[in-house]
Amino acid sequence: MSEINATMNGAAGAPGIDAGARYHVRDHHPENGTMLGFWIYLMSDCLIFASLFATYAVLGRNYAGGPSGAELFDLKLVGINTAFLLVSSITFGFAMISAQAKNLAKTQLWLVVTGILGACFLGLELYEFYHLIHEGAGPARSAFLTAFFSLVGTHGLHVLFGIVWLITLVVQLGKHGLNVENMRRLSCLSLFWHFLDVVWIFVFTFVYLMGTLP
Amino acid sequence: MSEHHNHGHDDHGHGHGHGHHDAHAVHYSLKDYTIGFTLAVILTVIPFWLVMGNILDPGTTRFVIMGFAAVQLVVHMVYFLHMNSKSEGGWNMMALILTLVLLGIVLSGSIWVMYHMNVNMMPNMGEATEAMKHGTHDMP
Questions:
Q1: B residues 32..61 contacting A (CB < 8 A)
Q2: Is the complex ipTM more than 0.85?
Q3: Domain for residue B12, yes or no?
Q4: How many Å apart are CA A129 and CA A109, to the nearest integer?
Q5: Number of folded domains in chain B?
Q6: Domain limits at B117?
Q7: Which CATH class is domain A38-212?
Q8: What pLDDT digit, counting tens, does each position of B107-131 carry?
Q9: Quick check: is B20 in a domain?
Q10: How far is CA B135 from CA A64, A71, A136, A156, B109, in A?
Q11: Distance from B63 to chain A by nearest Cα, in Å?
C-alpha cells in the first residue's frame, strides 16, 4: 500500500498517467502470477471434485434398500439445468468480448445475464434437492444419496460463490470501470465460471445419465 | 527505489498498451465462443438423447456417453478456457498434466481397491450382510 502511495507521489507531476498505469508499473510480474496462481487454485479444486467423484464411484450403487438413481432422477430437469449452465458460459464469453472492446455497459449487462442464468441453475438444483428430501431421499437415506448430495451440493456451492463474485464484480466495474485490476478479475472469474461448466459435464454424465441407466 | 519507479514510468508510455495485452494474452473472439457453444450443445444433446430414448443397450451407452464427455472436456478447454500449451509459459499445461495424473491415481485407485474389497468380502459375508440389513447399512 505504501508503495502505491509512494508511486502516486512520484507520479503527481505527470498528469498524463492514469491509475491503471501506476498499478501496472508496480505489479507487472505479480499480475502474470495471478493468472497462473488462479489456475493452480482451479487445479486443486479439481482434486476436491476428483475425490468426491471417486466417493460417488465407490458408493454410487449402495442403495441400502432405498431408491436408486433411475427412480429419483428427472432427466428433463437435469437437461434444463445443463442448458442454463451452458448458455451462461457463452453469455460470460460475450461479457469478456465486450470487456475486451472496452464496452462497460455491455460487459455489465452480460455479467448480469450470466448471474441470472446461474441463479436459475441454482434455483432448479435447490428445488430438486428439496423435492428429494421431501420424498424421504435425503442425504441420510443411503450411501448413494450421501455421495450424490456431497458431489452435486459442492458444485452448487461453487456456483453460489461464482454468483457472489459476479455481483461483486458488477459493482466494482460500476465504480472503477474497465481498469487493469478489473480486467484481471474478469479473466479469473471467466476461468472459474467455465471451470464450473466443465465439472458439470462430468456431473451430468456420470451421476445423472449413468445413474439412470440400468 | 524512486529510480526504479521513474524508470518504470518512462517505460510506461509505450509499455502500457503492450503490457496490457501481455497480461491478458487471451484474445476473446466471438468466433471461438460460437464454435465452442455449438459443439458443446451437440455433445450434450446426443448423450441425453441416447439415455432418454434408450437408443442403444446400456453397456454401449455407458461408453459412448463417456466418450462424449471426454470430447466435450477438450472443447471447453480449447474454446472457453482458451488453453494452449503456451499459456503462462507452459506452466498452465504443466499444472494441468500434474492434476490429470493425480486425478487418474485417485479415481482409478479408489475404484480398483474398493471393487476388489467388495469382491473379496462377498463370499464370507453371507451372514454378516444379513445381520447388517437390520443394523447399519452400507458399511464398507
A1: 32-34, 36-37, 40-41, 44, 47-48, 51-52, 58, 61
A2: no
A3: no
A4: 30
A5: 1
A6: 90-140
A7: mainly alpha
A8: 999 989 888 888 887 665 555 555 5
A9: no
A10: 11, 24, 19, 33, 29
A11: 10
